[in-house]
Write a structure and sequence with these properties.
27 helices, four-stranded mixed beta sheet, mainly alpha, 6 strands
Length: about 650
């Protein structure tokens, strides 16, 4: 995955003119834009999903962008661009990013366990089977993935960029779907996330050494990301979208002419080119998950407000001020429409409030949202950032504080606001769901916390007694020692919060006799399904008890690849009457039409602990309509014999 986004996204970043850290940090967002966008275009020209198509589209687009850049650079009426002078290697940046990658990798390893483990959660039924659906159909379009569960086309759009990328990993590596998913998770958590956060922090406040290392360390300090979205859901596409969002925010800051000093080793792009960088990141975010796109909209609100205020002060005439005011009103209307349109149906937004407003406020201040255990280092850093922002009152500090206020407001609203209609207006785009809003908090907290640490360190360094210490920390190798000690100290203090989050995730990824979706007996049986079920023959069974995972794990089609299915007439006949089927009746006709040859019986345990009745799958052990062909514990695979010779015979 790293090589994929480096080649795809890195090439486009170079074509636009980005260099150094900007080019590296933007590459994943550009890469996901190309993957998600190509997936939509590819079916129109009749090509199957593959990395070749992505590379072709990237090459063509990159050539066009390079030519436009070259032509613009020659004329330079729009500001063009020129390469910034090369600067020496940034040791602090490398130390911080490597430390963050190592810590976050270890945390993902601890949470996931073995490479082949998978999340035993409701949403993962769709995610894993969705990857298999792409591999089977050769179509990774966000306009097509919904047909896996809605063949009639009722689900016209489902964000498929994450699934498309995982399918490419499977194609390129030959790895199983769970292994590819875990590899993707590792890249998102340990590479994409810290890259984006450090870039955003440096874009706001400059490339200071203490600031850079602080942002890198704080990127590992929050249980709310990336672990929360592995524990809840599991929400892989939303996790990807949020990890990409800081880069889009950094580019937006540049496009609006806000923030601190320019990032060293980046090219000096005009605002027009920075706007193009923003446009290059947004599709990848939106096609990963619309909720992440709305997060970008929400967090850019303080930027737009500050930009408008600055432009109003600079306006030379009443007409200019009216034009700026009108544009701002239009922005607000577009944002309001986006909040209304980019949200799920009302029945999916029914999550209730769970606490009082003061309790929700305390969870924000103590960084204890969802897991209930405070993260003291992160909380103190953010508090310091708030204090310094109010003292300094620079544009960058107001931006960071504004994003924090937006994130805190949204979390308190979704967790505690008793006014249902107002709550739904603000947080309906995130399903009115507390974990989704909690996962956004670190995105705003890391830049503000790093700013707080850097300003506090600067104030302490001005005290004469610390002069010797400041001189001692100058050499680069001592920077490494200091960063390692700081990281070790933070982990020691915050061990409880991070341990709770990791343990919670680990329980959901382990394959045990009591796993809620696929237990160890069922998993063992699924490893042998391909020995009994011919390729292309479908398997019946309840999707709630894990039998539908035969699609992702055993590469055999299933009648219901997810719990939320469009139930056709033939499917209903099988679900209700398989155990009473007779040759020549409507049930056998449905079995033949859907090419069903087997049924998996994984018992009554369901992933959500509920009960969903499928009369046609009851009492199969005593039925003469099926024949037992394999068994592991209580998990059974039956061949359907009610209708005569099987579909393969």
């Amino acid at each position: 995955m790293l090589m994929l986004v480096a080649v795809i996204g890195g090439a486009l970043a170079w074509a636009i003119g980005l260099r150094g850290f900007w080019a590296v940090a933007v590459a994943p967002a550009f890469g996901m834009t190309m993957i998600g966008g190509t997936a939509i275009v590819e079916p129109w020209v009749g090509l199957p999903w593959s990395v070749a198509a992505v590379l072709i589209v990237t090459t063509v687009l990159g050539a066009v962008l390079w030519w436009v850049r070259f032509a613009t650079n020659r004329r330079r009426p729009l500001g063009g661009l020129r390469d910034a002078p090369r600067r020496r290697f940034d040791t602090w940046l490398m130390v911080g990013l490597v430390a963050a990658a190592v810590v976050l990798s270890l945390r993902v390893f601890e949470a996931v366990g073995a490479p082949g483990n998978f999340s035993q959660t409701f949403d993962n039924i769709f995610h894993l089977n969705g990857v298999r659906f792409i591999l089977d159909t050769g179509n990774a379009s966000s306009l097509y993935l919904g047909r896996m569960t809605n063949p009639g086309g009722a689900l016209a759009f489902y964000p498929a960029a994450w699934h498309a990328a995982v399918a490419l990993i499977v194609q390129l590596s030959g790895a199983s779907i769970p292994v590819a998913v875990n590899a993707m998770t590792l890249v998102v958590a340990a590479v994409v996330w810290p890259l984006g956060l450090v870039l955003l922090t440096r874009t706001l406040f400059g490339a200071g050494r203490v600031l850079t290392v602080s942002a890198s360390i704080l990127a590992t300090a929050f249980p709310l990301f990336p672990l929360l979205l592995l524990e809840y859901g599991v929400l892989y596409p939303y996790q990807m979208g949020l990890a990409l969002t800081p880069v889009a925010l950094a580019a937006t800051t540049r496009a609006l002419g806000l923030g601190g000093a320019a990032e060293p080793q980046s090219s000096e792009l005009s605002r027009w080119w920075w706007g193009l960088v923003v446009l290059g990141t947004i599709p990848g975010i939106a096609l990963s998950h619309p909720g992440a796109f709305v997060t970008w909209l929400a967090f850019t609100a303080p930027m737009v407000v500050i930009f408008v205020v600055q432009r109003l002060k600079e306006a030379q005439s009443a007409r200019g001020r009216w034009a700026i005011g009108g544009a701002f009103v239009a922005y607000l209307l577009v944002g309001a429409v986006a909040l209304m349109v980019l949200r799920p149906p009302a029945e999916a937004r029914g999550w209730p409030i769970m606490m009082s407003v003061p309790a929700a406020g305390w969870e924000v201040l103590s960084v204890s949202a969802w897991f209930g255990v405070a993260a003291p280092v992160a909380a103190l850093a953010v508090l310091a950032g708030v204090v310094w922002a109010l003292i300094v009152r620079s544009t960058a500090s107001w931006l960071a504080l504004g994003m924090y206020v937006v994130a805190a407001f949204l979390f308190i609203t979704v967790a505690a606001l008793p006014l249902g209609s107002l709550r739904d207006a603000f947080t309906g785009a995130w399903y009115n769901n507390i974990p989704r809003l909690a996962a956004m908090l670190p995105l705003a907290m890391v830049p503000l916390g790093a700013f707080g640490i850097a300003r506090t360190a600067s104030a302490l360094a001005a005290i004469p007694v610390f002069a010797r210490l400041r001189e001692w920390t100058a050499p680069a190798w001592r920077v490494v020692i200091g960063a390692v000690l700081a990281l070790a100290g933070m982990l020691a203090v915050q061990g409880a919060a991070l341990s709770v989050a990791s343990s919670s995730v680990a329980r959901l990824f382990a394959i045990t006799p009591d796993s809620p979706l696929v237990n160890s007996d069922e998993y063992a049986l699924l490893q042998r399904v391909d020995e009994h079920v011919p390729d292309g023959v479908a398997i019946a069974g309840s999707p709630w008890n894990g039998s539908s995972m035969a699609y992702a794990l055993a590469d055999r089609p299933v009648l219901m690849p997810h719990t939320l299915m469009e139930i056709t007439h033939d499917l209903e006949l099988i679900n209700d009457g398989l155990n009473g089927a007779n040759p020549g009746d409507a049930v056998c006709a449905a079995i033949a039409a859907l090419q069903v040859g087997f049924v998996l019986d994984f018992g009554p345990q369901e992933v959500h602990g509920a009960t969903h009745e499928f009369p046609g799958f009851e009492d199969l052990a005593g039925s003469d309509r099926v024949r037992l062909v394999d068994q592991e514990g209580e998990a059974r695979l039956y061949e359907i014999v009610a209708c005569g010779p099987g579909v393969d015979g």
